[in-house]
Amino acid sequence: MMVQEVITTTTDDLRFSVPLYTVAEAARALGVPATTLSTWAFGHQRFGPDGRSHRSDPILTAMRGGRGPSVPFIGLAEGMVLAAIRREGVPLQRVRPALEVLKRDIGIEHALASKRLYTDGAEILFDHASELPADEAEAVRDLVVVRSGQRVFSEVIKEYLSRIEWGRDGYATVIKLPAYGQASVVADPTRAFGQPIFERGGVRVSDVLDRFWSGDDIRTLSLEFGVPEPEIEDVLRAASRRAS
């Protein structure tokens, strides 16, 4: 029987209590559409064929209010997992019950941003798939594979989870962002207010992009900021794709 370690969070932990990203910024960092992330953060209302209103609840931590930042770092970490599920092609409405199972059985707040998801999540999901309706159970099993008798996450989910560094309290502390290919770009709430920075050089991605759009060439930026030229080229390609 699995013993649950109950972890509580405090309101003075900036990972949980301080909104650092707008929905658009968080979406760019995770490589998902802003409309998708907004639905994760604030829920979604739609009308069925019968004309009735159907409301989906938020599944990502966010704070409402104004046009400024609304997503804290822990919400960005939760979004990493949701982005991986989306990349697997599993509709989130089919795995919402599975997310509730994770929250219940892992026994802590913000289960999607917890190391317990990485170590125990695949086993929990596989074991509880039998409790779900057939289509939802199939969706859950799409996220989990059995290797050498062990239930583990699929390669996509596993790769995304491997991008997260965990703190001593079991929660995410640093994220290597998936929106880039060759460039190693991280989000760290203790550096640059959580904004994406190059792991090598420590400079904000936005600062390098601004300098490039202002006329500085890639070689100059590489020498000044200590960021390899191929990584600068990579973030420029990513920015150009988003702008087109």
Tally of helical runs:
11
- Taken as a percent bin, the fraction of beta residues is 5-15%
**Topology as a string of helices (H) and strands (E):** HEHHEEEHHHHEEHEEEEHHH
Gross CATH architecture of the domain at 180-244: Orthogonal Bundle
Features:
disordered N terminus, four-stranded antiparallel sheet, alpha+beta, 46% helix, 11 helices, 10 strands, Arc Repressor Mutant, subunit A, 244 residues
What is the topological layout?
Blueprint: H1 14-17, E1 19-21, H2 23-30, H3 34-42, E2 44-47, E3 53-56, E4 71-72, H4 73-87, H5 92-106, H6 115-128, H7 134-142, E5 144-147, E6 150-153, H8 155-161, E7 164-166, E8 172-176, E9 185-187, E10 197-198, H9 205-213, H10 218-225, H11 229-243
Antiparallel strand pairs: 1-4, 2-3, 5-6, 7-8, 8-9, 9-10
Helix pairs in contact: 2-3, 4-8, 5-6, 5-7
What does this structure look like?
With 244 residues, the chain is an alpha+beta fold. It has a domain at 180-244: Arc Repressor Mutant, subunit A. Helices cover 46% and strands 14% of the residues. It has eleven helices and ten strands. It has helices at 14-17, 23-30, 34-42, 73-87, 92-106, 115-128, 134-142, 155-161, 205-213, 218-225, 229-243; strands at residues 19-21, 44-47, 53-56, 71-72, 144-147, 150-153, 164-166, 172-176, 185-187, 197-198. Strands 7-8-9-10 form a four-stranded antiparallel sheet. A hairpin with a 2-residue loop joins strand 5 (144-147) and strand 6 (150-153). Helix 4 packs antiparallel against helix 8 (155-161), helix 5 crosses helix 6 and helix 5 packs across helix 7. The radius of gyration is 19 Å and the shape is globular. 36% of the residues are buried. Residues 1-8 have low confidence and may be disordered.
